[in-house]
Amino acid sequence: MNKICNFFIFLVLITRTVSESYTPIVLWHGMVDTCCNEISMDMLVRHLKEALPGVHTVSLMIGNNTKEDLRNGFLMHPNEQIEIACSIVNSDPLLADGYNAIGVSQGSQLIRGLLQRCPGPRMKTLITMAGQHQGYYGIPFCDPLTIPRCDFIRKTLSRFAYLSSIQKQSTQATFWHDSLNEETYKHKNTYIAEINNERVINKTYITKLQSLENFVMIKYEKETMVIPKDSSWFEFYAPGQSTKILPLRESDLYISDRLGLKQMDQDGKLHFILAPWVHWEFDWTWYKKNVVDVFLK
Ligand SMILES: *[C@@H]1O[C@H](CO)[C@@H](O)[C@H](O)[C@H]1NC(C)=O
Ligand SMILES: *[C@@H]1O[C@H](CO)[C@@H](O)[C@H](O)[C@H]1NC(C)=O
Fold first, then answer.
1. How far is CA 7 from CA 2, 16, 296, in A?
2. Which residues sit with their C-beta closer than 6 Å to ligand 1?
3. What Å distances lie between residue 177 and 58, 60, 193, 215, 254, CA to CA?
4. What SS3 class is residue 289?
5. Mean pLDDT for the stretch of residues 143-171
6. Entry pTM
7. Residue 54 pLDDT > 90, yes or no?
8. Where is the signal peptide (predicted)?
9. What is the pLDDT of residues 267-280, one digit of tens each?
10. 108 part of a folded domain
11. Cβ 136 vs Cβ 189: under 8 Å
12. Which of 72, 121, 224, 260 has the fewest C-beta atoms lying within 10 Å of its C-beta?
């Protein structure tokens, strides 16, 4: 009897050790996607569970089902989405000791908003994949550098993007960053400009960002959806023009350290990674070697 008992205690201990050895992971999907898509987020989760046996994962669903989740990615303001995500994270006891986070595409700037705004368990490492930390100025597959008409299209869209009715109804409009009109962007954009401390400096945002152990930003080399793709590394067009990219370390955001990024850089917390992919591509072998083995083990 005693032996059997000991055996069970032993089993319980083993199971606990295995499941407690990896920090849980919270994931936030991109546009035209859901928490549980078999060929994207669910696949990533399955790979992570294989590489990190027993790891607890939460792929955020914004809405009551995947249909709502998909729709909310287009129509719900990031502020509301983040509140929902915050309550999911806060009500999961398995996340109480902290978690790592992975954002995919627009999920990158949304999960960064979760970090900056949500009082709750600590986010330790933040990994963003093809994110748009500086927003974007352009529409997918329409690169003004190669297709001149695309510049006209984005200029036209810019006349509407900052209307308050559009900002309220289109998630993507809240990522619109017209570098030709920085002042309008700073004052009328209702999400990216706010979380990037463009209007006022919110010290909480700096503190929360700097509480990360690592902030890993993955840019996709052959990106055609995110314009400019450098937004994935927190870089953008130089103010007042829309062709040349200003390196992060030369930008005012960095130099004045309005968001605390300079300090993070000096502390060795910023990691800029280049993946050899187009936007929807994913290669697990590469990802495991360059991201999972380095930052999630
Ligand atoms: C979940 O469903 C309820 C009832 O239909 C609805 O009121 C609510 O808005 C839904 N939640 C989200 C986040 O869409
Ligand atoms: C800063 O952000 C926090 C978290 O979102 C918020 O509660 C607070 O009101 C903000 N402070 C200012 C000055 O905007």
1. 8, 14, 31
2. 63-64, 68, 84
3. 30, 26, 8, 22, 17
4. helix
5. 96
6. 0.93
7. yes
8. 1-19
9. 999 999 999 999 88
10. yes
11. no
12. 224
Residue 279 within any structural domain of the chain? yes
Q: In angstroms, what is the C-alpha Rg of the chain?
A: 20
Max CA separation in the chain (angstroms): 80
Residue range of the domain that includes 74: 56-296
Residues 34 and 251: their CA atoms lie apart, in Å, by 34
The more confidently predicted of residues 18 and 139 is: 139
Q: Whose CA is closest to atom 6 on ligand 2?
A: 117
In contact, 122 and 144? CB cutoff 8 Å: no
Q: Which of 68, 82, 86, 88 to mutate to test the pocket of ligand 1 (most atoms within 8 A of CB)?
A: 68
Q: Which amino acid is at 49?
A: K
Q: Length of the chain in residues, anyone? A: 297
Q: According to the model, what pLDDT value does residue 8 have?
A: 55
**Closest Cα to atom 9, ligand 1: which residue?**
63
In a domain, 201, yes or no: yes
**Coil vs helix vs strand at 26:** strand
CATH number for 274: 3.40.50.1820
- Cβ-count burial of 214 within 10 angstroms (0-12 exposed, 13-18 middle, 19+ buried)? middle
Query: Which helix H or strand E contains 205, and what residues bound it?
Result: helix 203-210
Asked if residue 133 is part of any domain, the answer here is yes
Which tokens belong to 102? 């992975």
CA-nearest residue, atom 4 of ligand 2: 117
The pLDDT, as a whole number, for residue 17 is: 52
Structure-token pair, residue 234: 């927190």
Compute the distance between CA of residue 106 and CA of residue 113 in angstroms, rounded to an integer. 11
Count of structural domains within the chain: 1
Distance from the alpha carbon of residue 71 to the mean position of ligand 1, in angstroms: 12
